[in-house]
Amino acid sequence: MGRCISTLHNYISKNKIQDLGVNFPDWSASSIVQVISFIHKDTRTLDDLKKQAYFIDMLDCGFFKISETLLVPSTCQEVRFVRNQSISKLFQGSAKRRLKRIKKRAESQGRSFNPQKTIPPKEVDMFHRVLMNSSSNQHDFIIHIQKESNMEISTPCFNSYGLSTNQLFKGTVPDLSKLVLENNF
């Protein structure tokens, strides 16, 4: 799944698009997807996205099925797929990296480093993790995605991964879950 999102990210970044959203129609508690869809008002943009080398290679190898570009029925509810970066801060590895940066900064400024803060446990709603690889520095990283249901339709404004965020990008996409079940995509 990470390669699909990375391909989308590269396409969005190259073409400076902010209204292209990603959708996971068969999202469940146990799995993020077997199906991914992309939502945009211009079918030419979606047709161009389908021509990206990774998608073509996976199609040619038989790993992917790519449908025709379809119009979304107006009866669909809206959902939001959110990249929630605050979730990663709850994991020990992130806390260690943050402490290391703070220590280095304190030492470079001649201050002592004596961390006292303990972070209380925090509950978060269900999320899925997607492993990504940065094309700029070749480092792996994880993005945490949550689904928010029954949203009011909002302006399609997404980050460079086609996702909403907790603050700036609040775009919604149609809930295609019923269509996927009905049509066996």
Structure description:
The chain has helices at residues 2-15, 43-50, 53-60, 92-108, 177-183; strands at 21-23, 37-39, 78-83, 128-133, 140-151, 164-165, 173-174. It has a single domain, classed as 2-Layer Sandwich (Alpha-Beta Plaits). β4 and β5 (140-151) form a beta hairpin. With 185 residues, the protein is of the alpha+beta class. The mean pLDDT is 87. The chain contains 5 helices and 7 strands, in the order αββααβαββββα.
Describe the secondary structure blueprint for this structure.
Elements: H1 2-15, E1 21-23, E2 37-39, H2 43-50, H3 53-60, E3 78-83, H4 92-108, E4 128-133, E5 140-151, E6 164-165, E7 173-174, H5 177-183
Parallel strand pairs: 3-6
Antiparallel strand pairs: 1-2, 3-5, 3-7, 4-5
